[in-house]
Specification:
The protein is an alpha/beta fold. The protein has one domain (2-197): Rossmann fold (3-Layer(aba) Sandwich). The protein contains 6 helices and 7 strands. Helix 3 (75-96) links the parallel strand 4 (55-60) and strand 5.
């Protein structure tokens, strides 16, 4: 199976690549990898699929959202998150459909803030919720038996030093558990699912 992992050089992405590598041909794409892509740039996504050719699965662990204090939040903060984590991942699906084999899959990443908000998390909550709605809706109309799911983890244990203060009282999730959810989506049969962790 040929699997394209977008965002495959980040903390979660690296774990996903490691988990998928046995038995699969894994192509790693990110802004810093040999196979480069910026999911906020439509032309970059098109060039990515032209370069990688036909794949069996597309996995995304890419996309970022800002965390402004609500009183300071502007529409520019939303646009930043939309262009990166939301529209970037949606564009991977829309532009990727012709390049994924019949019965193949897409697996995107959302996050716990789509269901449990935190202070300074309004942009992330909005984007994660919208992304999960996209997944459940797109699953009903994807052609050729294509599947789509999302992985929605809590704060990752290995990132507590950076993000822990945003998630007081939340149960952290080991990155290996997050990676296994991606493997479940890629090799499973489900579609339209949001795999919640933590």
């Amino acid at each position: 199976m040929k699997v394209l992992v977008v965002g495959g050089t980040g903390r979660i992405g690296t774990a996903v690549v490691d988990a998928l590598t046995p038995g699969n041909e894994v192509v790693v794409a990110s802004r810093s990898s040999t196979v480069g892509v910026d999911i906020g740039d439509a032309q970059s996504i098109t060039a990515l699929f032209e370069r990688t050719g036909t794949v069996d699965a597309v996995v995304s662990t890419a996309g970022a959202t800002p965390f402004p204090v609500f009183a300071d939040t502007t529409t520019d903060h939303f646009r930043e998150g939309f262009d990166s984590k939301l529209l970037g991942q949606i564009d991977l699906v829309l532009r990727g459909i012709p390049h994924v084999r019949d019965g193949g899959s897409f697996t995107l990443i959302s996050g716990v803030l789509g269901r449990e908000p935190v202070a300074s998390g309004v942009v992330a909550s909005t984007i994660n919720g919208a992304l999960e709605s996209f997944v459940t809706a797109a699953a009903t109309e994807l052609p050729r038996g294509l599947r789509i799911n999302a992985v929605s983890p809590s704060v990752v244990t290995e990132s507590l030093d950076v993000y822990g203060d945003y998630f007081p009282g939340f149960t952290p999730v080991p990155v290996a558990d997050v990676a296994r959810a991606f493997v479940k989506s890629v090799h499973g049969i489900q579609t339209g699912q949001v795999y919640e962790l933590g």
